[in-house]
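Quick look at the format.
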Amino acid sequence: MTHQTREQTADIVARLKLCKRLPTLPTVALRLVELANDESASLDEFAEQITFDPALAGKLLRVANSSFYGRRRAVTNLSQAMSLLGLNATIALSLSFSLRASLSQQYRSGFDTNAYWRRTLLTALACRSIAEELDEVQPEDYLLAGLLQDIGILAMDAMFGDPYAALYQQSTDHQHLLVQEAVRFGFTHAQAAAHLLKSWGLPERICQSAWLSHELIKLPHDGPPEDDKLPFYVAAAALIADAWMKEQTAPDSIELTYDSVRTLLNVRLEKYRAIIGAMIQKIPEMEALFDTQLADAQMLQDLEYNARETLAVRSLLRSHAQDPATEALENRITVLEEQTQRDSLTGLYSRNYLDAMLQHEFERATRSNTPLSVAFIDVDRFKAINDTFGHAMGDQVLATVAQRLQAQSRQIDTVARYGGEEFVMLLPETDSEQAEAVLQRMLEHVRDNPFHTQSGAQGTVTFSAGIATHMQGTQFFQNARALLQAADNALYEAKETGRERIAIHQQDATRPAASGSFPPAQ
């Protein structure tokens, strides 16, 4: 795991001390932190401080009566609310509400504050839901840790102003934001957060989790240790929040994030879905408490429906494990699920599935610093095949090419129909040279096996391909779309220089070679 150098620590501390625009806690919240560090402080002293902030007291009463706690009898005063919540939860929730209210007023800088708070609150909710589902004693501690994970972004904006706001706006991927921060400013918002929270007097485990949770995402794991779960829970929650924000434009993002979350939490798929289900149930209350829309109503309805149907079917199957009719039903469900991900003509994966899988593989390659190659494939002179033999024969040729591509792909590869006569292939953990070898083998297999028409005639079909690779040496891309565009550009080059060939995208060392890509760090 990466450690801060003394120089980095000194630089961060110095900049924090000099900055006059740093995010600050309101007086009541600061007093609560002080009381929390005083072992002799009584519950009445906490209640007295909270009454100085009527809005905060009202929020605590509301949460005590909310679905977060499933209270049947109404809680009518602050003492009852604190007794129900417990002291730790009262402090965590008070800080959460105070931070959301005060920092929203303090910061209206160049970056998208709505997106920032949406991701932050989703991380907090996901972290609390993880803690609840994994039977942790104080879920609100995890809510607070999730809420504070990215507080360093506000600190970086305060310290560096417009240059940081521009950097934040251009960085659509969280891991790339961290990389660029380190290159540009010498340290990241994760490191800044740890020092800022320490200056507020928050517990050491909360301070450290803001930094370590970012570091954990880069490394392989097999679940959290018993004595230090917090940063693992926060790291998993951040991944879920990212997937949640992508779900509307990239369906199945939440489902595809399971593999990454599993390495951090060591949970089965059913437990992961239970965590997502808990979030779905709590979203409306969370939105009301923090005055922020966290999910589109239709997306929330679709997620809830899918989760309910999946769990219901799995429950039915488990209770009738030996029933032949149930086994047939399970097989039918598997077939139907598979069909929704497949192109009806070729049997390859569909465009929607490709989009989600590309994002998933891109993020995995970025976290693990392993190469991901993308190949854009186009059947040569396909229009001539349609014009000569008819569209029915053209469809048959496409299906045949698809079968041959699939037959020569590896188990780790994903082959999908992009549209028309175009295909896209994802090659994880594969550099450009290895990807070229795979594509060359495919090209030979397609070319050396002629297609046959109904009249007995035969013809040869070939394809051209372009390859682009992410995380190879100093070459990387800002986002998955830029990587796909680079592969498409390489395909265009292959077409322009004679067809029936494979071109590899070469990134210019002085400027991005595809829209949205970065030059290598100097």
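Next, a different chain entirely:
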Amino acid sequence: MSAVDRPSDTPASPKRRVSGSSIGAAFVSFLVLAPSLVLGGYSSGLLVQAFIFGTVALITDVIWGYSGILTFASAAMFGTGAYALGMLFVHVSPSPASTAAALAVAMIAAGLLSALIGWLAFYSRTKVSEFYVAVVTLGVSVLFGQAVLYGGAATGGSNGLSGFTTFSLNNQSWYLIAGIGLLAFGGAALRIVGSDFGLVLRAIRDNEARCRYIGIRTPLIKTVVFSVCNALLAAVGVFYSLYTTVVAPSLFGMTLATNVLIWVILGGRATIIGPALAAILITIVTPQLTTTIPLYWQGLLGLTFVLVVLFLPRGVLPAVWDGIKSALSVLGLNTTLMAKTDAGTDALFETRPPALSSVAGQTVLDLSNVSKRFGSFQALTDVSFTVQRGELLSIVGPNGAGKTSLVRCISDGDERSSGCILVDGKSIEHNPPEVIMRLGVGRKFQGASIFETLVVGECLKIATWKGKVPSVWNRHSKVILPRGAAEVAESLGLKHVWNTPAKDISHGQRQALELAMVLALEPSVLILDEPTAGLTTHERSMVGDVLTRLVATGQLAIVLIEHDFEFVKRISTRIIVLVNGQLVANGKVEEVSNSEIVRDAYLGRSHKENMK
């Protein structure tokens, strides 16, 4: 029997199915690489540069579009790679060894500098503007430009370095290398941003504060993404220098630095494909426009940029894509396959039973002489109390009493001015929120703090990871919720909007979503800052029932801030009263609610005197 006729030793397997994404990838690869067979030398050379700049644009889109880091450093990091190779080829030797050395030096230098910028910007406990990185990276670009401009013979000064020997390849070969590189970078970027890790990047972009309070180490993630992407940009710069054999100070100039951002905006932030297409198309038409309208083409590009920002703020590609889907919908064609891959998630979730190691009655939160000052203003003065598992403690008091300041002190170790706070017997010290979350503190903000562009299921899935970094390459649809979070999702209607973007759900559902996200952390101390604000009477009642059942399990303690005193009396096991930053009452519901102190705090002393 011949090898062809011999039956397989392995069990019969079903026929392989070719997925739509595989067909799409093959089609795009054909469109990119096939023209090399028919294009002339000039056209191939122009497209090589276009592909290089397209790669720069899509890497920048990962930094800005997905991670929310506005950067002007893309050109500087790209130029670093280009100059590293140019200087080694001119002053050492044009060889594969010099190429490898340039690649290593450029990537390491770009990565270390980016890590330093990340450490200064992202790890600062002092709140810095989102434009801080933009200003710093703009300064880096200017500094690098001046360094090469006045670098003398080492950098070639204003003339740069040119004419050095490189590898002997024709334009078609360079075209194939650049095209394959663009496809590889684009495919990898799409896979990463479509993974579970991509969800984390989008969450950080949407709401960094909420990310930190569900345990995500946002400073570390942003620094790593910023550093790795800039190192890759330096690698692309090395390839650019290999191909063009010309490096000049303009690589660090403001023109290229701003053009990269313009490509991202025109193509569409957080699309990967859009910025790459914009960079390619603009690079292709630039020589023609420079020849035909040399005095106006930059102004025309600027006008186009302004018009897109005003009328197509999401960019051109998303607008075109929406138009195509609308047209197909009108024609009655199925557009399911064209739906956004990052918007869907499995509508079902599994419920995980809670751990049974905790015991009701154990002290889980202990505050001793906690004070908070804002300059000369004393917001809190020597506040001390304890909270046990299975207890729902409500903090009441008039506006300005210091309730929210107290919550911030418990959930962020850098907030209090003095005093000690223990969670399960461990001091929170001066740790950031993502560390305190791991001690067992979950905080719901006064206004619903969620991830606007993520769907409801994605918001909950991220919370279940409890700050652990998920897969960078794969995406899993399964969501496993702890019993408390699952109960909120069931009873407050989140299952009905599971695949709806969080920005499109009702106010009550947004409040319920944030509560479920915090419960997904399985905290031992659940801090709720006005969870029923803006809810209807029916919704308030449902939230109250859920909180009562959660406390009855004995698995956690709830610290509640609420202005609705009738709601407080109905669900609380104990009440403390804050007035002017001082704890003035601490006792059972009946005792405190009937006290003169509470009447004074809520109605005012003048009202009490008028009642006499």
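Residues 1-20, 335-347, 605-612 have pLDDT under 50 and may be disordered.

See the schema section for token definitions.
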